[in-house]
From TrEMBL:
Gene3D superfamilies: 2.60.40.1230, Leucine-rich Repeat Variant
Location of the protein in the cell: Cytoplasmic vesicle membrane; Endomembrane system; Golgi apparatus
PROSITE patterns: GAE
Sections of the chain in a coiled coil: none
Keywords, ordered alphabetically: Cytoplasmic vesicle, Golgi apparatus, Membrane, Protein transport, Transport
Membrane topology: Peripheral membrane protein
Signal peptide: none
GO cellular component, one term: AP-1 adaptor complex
Domain GAE: 642-757
Pfam families found in the cross-reference section: Adaptin_N, Alpha_adaptinC2
One GO-annotated biological process of the protein: vesicle-mediated transport
Protein name according to UniProt: AP-1 complex subunit gamma
Length: 762
């Protein structure tokens, strides 16, 4: 047979084709010649034919008939044959074809070859198309090459190990010893692939994530050397030293620092250096800055660093590159809920993006603009958005109107929830027209139910609002005559996709069917809290250490039972069975008298009966606790007791709890502690709850706090009173539990307070 044409000649011939049909005819003719050569077992030109076949495969023509020829080239002893054979295997074979299993032994032999380039070919092929069976068989050889001193092989072995871990995650621990010295390598290629391997291991295993957190200081040093090093022609890209390695290290730091205080603190300084020293005139620098911003936002970074990151995104909005502007708007949209004030500083730039010609940028700017609307800027922002609505394309008008309407309903959800509760409690009074202060409005039962059902089906109602509405409708089943209509509404939501609504509806249906005789009692109105003028010592209501002129008539209050869930929650706080918990409860009165309720000390709650606590018995509020025994009509407390210095009980994450001390005049065994909670961070701490527990030799009463929001930047404080009876005058010990929400994330922490001043308990 004549010698086949060379690959270069085939490419030149195909490029001369003027039509698709002419090109297809040339390809078919050459494929026929290649098949004939394969049938003749022509070893001389097999490599040339497979190379041409791979080019045809790249053009989109079928080349599967060359798979076995690739295996024959891999088994050859010539490096040129192996190179084309392995390339063909990576292009024409995958784990779906059983023929790939035939090359396992060849790859194993080549992994132990004396030539590093042959070893490199086999590592590349295994890392590209190795199946789970091949990875299990060859993982040992890959692990050996990962420990070699040859940099060329180590970087290829690291990438191959990444593929092995993806295919067979249980083999991850095999590569753990080999990772110890990877970051000590000076070769940037090895460093790059090592960081990729560590990233893969950390993403797939929480244990590996905890193990590799100790490498944070080493990664910080590598990154610092990169940004502080001088010009290196081998690694320089547009004036920046190895930006690819910098990006990989930043991604790994983001994974290691997420949710970990120590790791985040260790990388704060280097992130600030990268953010301030990276050149922004080239796209390479912008890529590094973007990864830096993502890392700062994901870890527990300092507030100043987060502001710096948002300012970088603000500068991106001024960039001429549309892709950079789009990325900046998308990132700001993700962070606007947690760093609202910092994003607000760039409001004018964001509004300017509404005028951008690019449709994607305009849409992101519209979404972010609505996210920035609040009570302070609503007039100016809505004016800008109305201008945008007037001039935008028709595709934007519907979305813009929907965003505006959603913002105006969602901002009033709490009011809707309160209204729903009131209608459920007093719907019969509403229908009867009984109103003391205003002209009564005549409404029917159907009109009231129509309103509540409208809230249930409204797309603007939040899940919490729907739950309020369903409960209100259920309460009205004992106040209205339209019971059949209410049954139908409740039964519909027994199959709701909202789990909360579904559970409520199923339970309410059970009340109608099985426990209908109990329904009126279960759904009766909440008891009215009556107040009368104070005349006696037992009628004094206390608010944070100050006497109040109003009193609480305890004779009309029902008994209060401590739920088992609350007891379990307190056991988590206490961590033992030698303490008496006190649960904070509130009475729905006016804010001025919040904290004035009288709590029983739960002294009968026993925690020694076993690991699982039982609910405490009902405690009648009509029996005054010991704190009121023997009190006279004189003021309850002295001024802050002389000689008892205040103390700091807790100081962490910007939250500071200070104790001040007072003494009760009638009983020196009662210590009155007032907590003062302050917040030095830039964001308010909401849903703040303080809980405390003391040993059984003490008795403790915890009054209601002045607020459940600790203002930011020390602009106010939350106060709460603790009363402790210490009849044996023992050293005071206390465990506290703090729960609050900060920047949208729930926070919970425990602490022990054992350093009370002696004057507080002697």
């Amino acid at each position: 047979m004549p010698a086949p044409i060379r690959l270069r000649e085939l490419i030149r011939t195909i490029r001369t084709a003027r039509t698709q049909a002419e090109e297809r005819e040339m390809i078919q003719k050459e494929c026929a010649a290649i098949r004939s050569s394969f049938r003749e077992e022509d070893n001389t030109y097999r490599c040339r034919n497979v190379a041409k076949l791979l080019y045809m495969h790249m053009l989109g023509y079928p080349a599967h008939f060359g798979q076995l020829e690739c295996l024959k080239l891999i088994a050859s002893q010539k490096f040129t044959d192996k190179r084309i054979g392995y390339l063909g295997a990576m292009l024409l074979l995958d784990e779906r074809q059983d023929v790939h299993l035939l090359m396992t032994n060849c790859i194993k032999n080549d992994l132990n070859h004396s030539t590093q380039y042959v070893q490199g070919l086999s590592l590349c092929t295994l890392g590209c198309m190795g199946s789970s069976e091949m990875c299990r068989d060859l993982a040992g050889e890959v692990e050996k090459l990962l420990k070699t001193s040859n940099s060329y092989l180590r970087k290829k072995a690291a990438l191959c190990a990444v593929h092995v871990i993806r295919k067979v995650p249980e083999l991850m621990e095999m590569f753990l010893p080999a990772t110890k010295n990877l970051l000590s390598e000076k070769n940037h290629g090895v460093l790059h692939t090592s960081v990729v391997l560590l990233t893969e291991m950390c993403e797939r295993s929480p244990d590996m994530l905890s193990h590799f957190r100790k490498l944070v200081p080493q990664l910080v040093r590598i990154l610092k050397n990169l940004i502080m090093s001088g010009y290196s022609p081998e690694h320089d890209v547009s004036g920046i030293s190895d930006p690819f390695l910098q990006v990989r290290i930043l991604r790994l730091l983001r994974i290691l620092g997420k949710g970990d205080d120590d790791s985040s603190e260790a990388m704060n300084d280097i992130l600030a250096q990268v953010a301030t020293n990276t050149e922004t005139s080239k796209n390479v620098g912008n890529a590094i800055l973007y990864e830096t911003v993502l890392t700062i936002m994901d870890i527990k970074s300092e507030s100043g660093l987060r502001v710096l990151a948002i300012n970088i995104l603000g500068r991106f909005l001024l960039n001429n590159d549309k892709n950079i502007r789009y990325v900046a708007l998308t990132s700001l949209l993700k962070t606007v809920q947690t760093d609202h004030n910092a994003v607000q500083r760039h409001r004018s730039t964001i509004v300017d993006c509404l005028k951008d010609l690019d449709v994607s940028i305009k849409r992101r700017a519209m979404e972010l603009s609505f996210a920035l609307v609040n009570g302070n800027n609503i007039r100016g922002m809505m004016k800008e958005l109305l201008y945008f609505l007037d001039s935008c394309d028709p595709d934007f008008k519907a979305d813009c109107c929907l965003f505006g309407c959603c913002w105006i309903h969602t901002s009033r959800q709490p009011l809707v929830q309160v209204a729903s509760w009131c209608i459920g409690e007093y719907g019969d009074l509403l229908v009867s027209g009984q109103c003391e202060e205003e002209e009564p409005i005549q409404v029917s039962e159907d009109e009231v139910l129509d309103v509540l059902e409208g809230l249930l089906v409204s797309n603007l109602s939040t899940p919490v609002t729907r739950a309020y509405s369903l409960t209100a409708i259920m309460k009205l089943s004992t106040r209205f005559s339209s019971v059949n209509r209410i049954k139908k509404v409740v039964s519909i939501y027994g199959s709701s996709i909202d789990v909360e609504l579904q559970q409520r509806a199923v339970e309410y249906n059970a009340l109608f069917k099985k426990y209908d005789h109990m329904r009126p009692a279960l759904l009766e109105r909440m008891p009215i809290m009556e107040k009368t003028a104070t005349n006696g010592p037992t009628d004094i209501a206390q608010t944070n250490g100050e006497t109040d002129s109003t009193i609480l008539d305890t004779k009309h209050l029902p008994s209060i039972t401590q739920p088992a869930s609350q007891a379990n929650d307190l056991l988590d706080l206490l961590g033992g069975n030698d303490v008496v918990p006190v649960i904070q409860t509130t009475v729905p009165t006016k804010p001025a008298s919040a904290g004035g309720e009288l709590l029983d000390l739960l002294g009968d709650l026993s925690l020694t009966g076993g690991p699982t606590p039982t609910p405490a018995p009902s405690v009648p509020m009509s029996q005054p606790p010991f704190l009121l025994d023997g009190l006279s009509s004189q003021p309850i407390f002295n001024d802050i007791a002389a000689g008892i210095p205040p103390m700091t009980a807790y100081n962490k994450n910007g939250l500071k709890i200070e104790f001040t001390f007072e003494r009760s005049n009638p009983s020196p065994n009662i210590a009155v502690i007032t907590i003062h909670a302050t917040n030095s961070t830039e964001a308010d701490m909401t849903e703040f709850v303080f809980q405390a527990a003391v040993p059984k030799t003490f008795q403790l009463q915890l009054l209601s706090p002045s607020s459940n929001v600790v203002p930011a930047l020390n602009q106010g404080s939350v106060t709460q009173v603790i009363r402790v009876l210490n009849p044996q005058k023992q050293q005071l010990r206390m465990r506290i539990k703090l729960t609050y929400t900060h920047k949208g994330s729930p926070v919970q922490d425990l602490a022990e307070v054992n350093n009370f001043p002696p004057q507080s308990w002697q």
